[in-house]
Design a protein that fits this description.
The structure is a single chain. The protein has 161 residues and is mainly β. The protein has one domain: Lipocalin (Beta Barrel), CATH 2.40.128. It is built from one helix and twelve strands, in the order αββββββββββββ. An eight-stranded antiparallel barrel has the order 3-6-7-8-9-10-11-12. A two-stranded antiparallel sheet has the order 1-2. Strands 4-5 form a two-stranded antiparallel sheet. The chain is globular.
Amino acid sequence: MKKNYVFNLVVLAFLYALSSCSSAHKIQGVNLNGKWLLNNVKRADLDTNLRFKTTVFDDVYSECLNNSVWNLYNNGSGSYTVESGLPDCRQGERQIYWSVRNDNGINYFQFKKLDNSAKPKNIGEGYRLEISSVTDNTLVLRSPVNVLNQTGYIVYSFAKQ
């Protein structure tokens, strides 16, 4: 009887841990795991007469991310692939480690770019974007940008594939 009790306790602990892991990437009941198409990157809340290029994620110009594919896996690993043929857009896949976080009632999508064999815990820098809205099929993120003492946002609109 005691062996059954211990076994059942271990199984319950495992199931609890498993359910905790699977819900770690949920925001407002929506699971972010899966394949997403970044179908629109735009600037918001900035003077429309301003002309400038913004480098995002210390990688490429924001326009280069249009139609990029983001794969977000349950274990936190993932990737995004730049496919733009625009000049100055370095194509290819970038490995990331991602998570979601709630700070003072604001939900964030955050990730670290992984280089070669680096482990996420050994990478100090990353990127955090506010989750503006999320449904089962859409995700909108935004990141502040300061231009000429004016704060605006880079807005990233995704569709689930």
